[in-house]
Amino acid sequence: MASLAAMLKKKGYDVYGSDENLYPPMSTFLEEQQIPVYQGFDVGHLDPEPDMVVVGNVISRGNVEIEEILTRHMLYISLPDALREFIIRGKRSIVVTGTHGKTTTTALTAWIFDFAGRHPGFMIGGIPLNFGRGFQVGDGKDFIIEGDEYDSAFFDKAAKFLRYMPDIGIVNNIEYDHADIYKSLDEIKLAFKRFVNLIPNNGLLIVCRDNDAAMEISGGAFCPVETFGLSPTSNWQGKNIAMNQHSLHFDVFFNGDFMGNIALPLSGEHNIRNALAAIAAAHHAGINFQTITAALQQFKGIKRRLELKGTAKGIEIYDDFGHHPTAIKETIAAFRSLYPKERIFVLYEPRSATTRRNIFQKVFVDVFEKADHIIIAPVNRPDKVPAEELFSCEQLALDLQNKGKNAVHLKSTKEIVQYLLQHLQSGDKVVTFSNGPFDHIHDKLIDAIINKNN
Description:
With about 450 residues, this protein is α/β, with parallel strands linked by helices. It has helices at about 1-10, 25-30, 65-70, 80-90, 100-115, 185-195, 210-215, 270-285, 290-295, 325-340, 395-400, 415-425, 440-450, and strands spanning about 15-20, 35-40, 55, 75-80, 90-95, 120-125, 135, 140-145, 150-155, 155-160, 170, 205-210, 225-230, 235-245, 250-255, 255-265, 305-310, 315-320, 345-350, 375, 405-410, 430-435. Helix 5 (about 100-115) packs across helix 8 and helix 12 (about 415-425) packs across helix 13 (about 440-450). The chain starts with a helix and ends with a helix.
């Protein structure tokens, strides 16, 4: 919502908003953009009456401003509809979707287009370090957007990505997620099928060959389809993979023809797939492979994607936004390949609407295989889930212990920090996984390590 507000202001609109519990970095960002925000909700915020109200999907009936808007028949619109009408319409829309990998793939695509001088607009759910912000209005013909399958607003329960008029659509992978919205994987696949059905016949669908569900939904496309992945049957294939602590190296083949070698400052096979999707979109848009190669070599990554938060007494602390079990498992595996001999401590907080629930209770037992120590934090906001559906941190720790893993469930940030102080030693790596701030445990841990025995 804040990125949309900033884009609308750059386009000349007067923008203000209301929100609860506004805190940095978003509060700081809005202050920098000189966008006023009321703390809390009050009907007085609607006087004088705005021309239009953009309603975020966290707002529901019963909110005093929503009730007033409905009573007065004011003009209101969802965030994805506002993006479509005020930002995307008139552009070539490149929409990046998938259960995971969306943010990185969108950032890679936006950076390639920008590096090539295309001046794209973009909106990304994270902060690409090449840009230092998650949005750009852009005066070029392309708008590149991270397409979320979550719902749009209390009055529009359809997936956001169905509002973005895709000309080029990327489907990276499809797995079960968003248990508060979708009852089954089949419901999620239906949303993606509807997305594919929106791509015009002169557009392009770019789909991951390595993901069965993604390939399944691509069958109904009315447009050309290009596949990507490590499978030899992919149109865009990554081969001859090598990696070190600084970058991935792999050869790219298109329909069996060698295109060139890529050096990408990221880790993990999943990032090869992310890069191949971005390469396919850029190639379709007419960007030459030499330019693509140079752009990827200078990609700086995404904030909160294995981001090094600090080093204290030889101990490195990393933060990652991962919350879906597949994404966490792939990230840990990639990290292990970089540090095969070091001890890796993983801190996990069940926080998302899905991971608060016990849907993945058994799945998570295999997620932390490559970690040396696993610390399970309490479920964030357990009151959001019916008691019978609540994820059991105690059971996960017990199941991991039964597999021979060093695993514990601790009930507070303070307990976790104290536990780590007793076990960490120079050379260890700590990685936190949460889709929230995790009680700022990174800063607390770094301070505690520095001050230990001082």
